[in-house]
Amino acid sequence: MEQRVPRGPREKYGEELKLRRIAAGMTQEAVAREMMCSPTLISHYEAGRRLPSPPDAKRLDKVLGTDGFFERWLEDLDSKFAHHFVAAAELEKQAAEIRQYGLTLVPGLLQTDDYARALFRAYDPNYRTDDIDRRVVNRMERAQILEGPSGPVLWTLLDEAVLRRRVGGAIAMAVQLRKIADMAEAGRLRLHVVPFGAGEHALMESLLTLMSFKDAAPVAYVEGLYTGNLMDDPALVSNCRTAYDLALGDALSHGKSLALVRAVAEEHENGEQ
User: Fold this and answer.
1) Structure confidence by residue, pLDDT tens digits, 215-272
2) With CB atoms 3.0 to 4.6 Å apart as the test, which of 129, 145, 162, 181 could cross-link to 158 if both were Cys?
3) CATH classification number, 94-269, choose in 3.30.70, 2.60.120, 1.10.275, 3.30.870
């Protein structure tokens, strides 16, 4: 049988993982047992459909005795993003549906140039302009997956706090909110806002992204300060989906959310906050 030629960096990573596993005399099931994950996940890694998280790459090295090889390669594979986000960024490109929740910030896929730039400056007070520029370009490139008919179905759930916090100043915030409203009005995303009046809700403690695929099991990505956790365990993903649905139940309708976003954008522009 003719061997398939890897199509890109992810496929090459997976092909090398398969070769090292075979050289170690291990099956996918044996590696999965040592990793405490499913054989299906190892299969996805080897096929190049998914990248391991940094902790999983480190565990692969330990199981296969590859002395940090896969951990180092993962770091070099995609330097556009923080290491904890590399695997999630790859999955974004493959997702058929993305459900994202913003607790205090506009999710990265929807950010404007000025909004993202203000965030990066806040994260690093000693920033270099060229480094900030590179990060902003990378973030804007991520959003290209939303263009065209083949992009994912996008659901966006926002806490009202996201609308009220002035990131980048009043005008930048108004522009940011109008971008979200315009995309929602054009049918490019389904928009819902959890208002302050809803009180407590199921997603008050984390930023969450749920991704579904045509040919693979769904995953959940939870992000914190300088950390990110990509989960494919069915029980955990199901729990995250339930929390999302519960919070969605406390949110305003699409139409009322759209009206609120436009109203708050006008408040920012008029200096009413």
Assistant:
1) 888 999 998 887 888 898 999 999 999 999 999 999 999 999 999 999 999 999 998 7
2) 162
3) 3.30.870
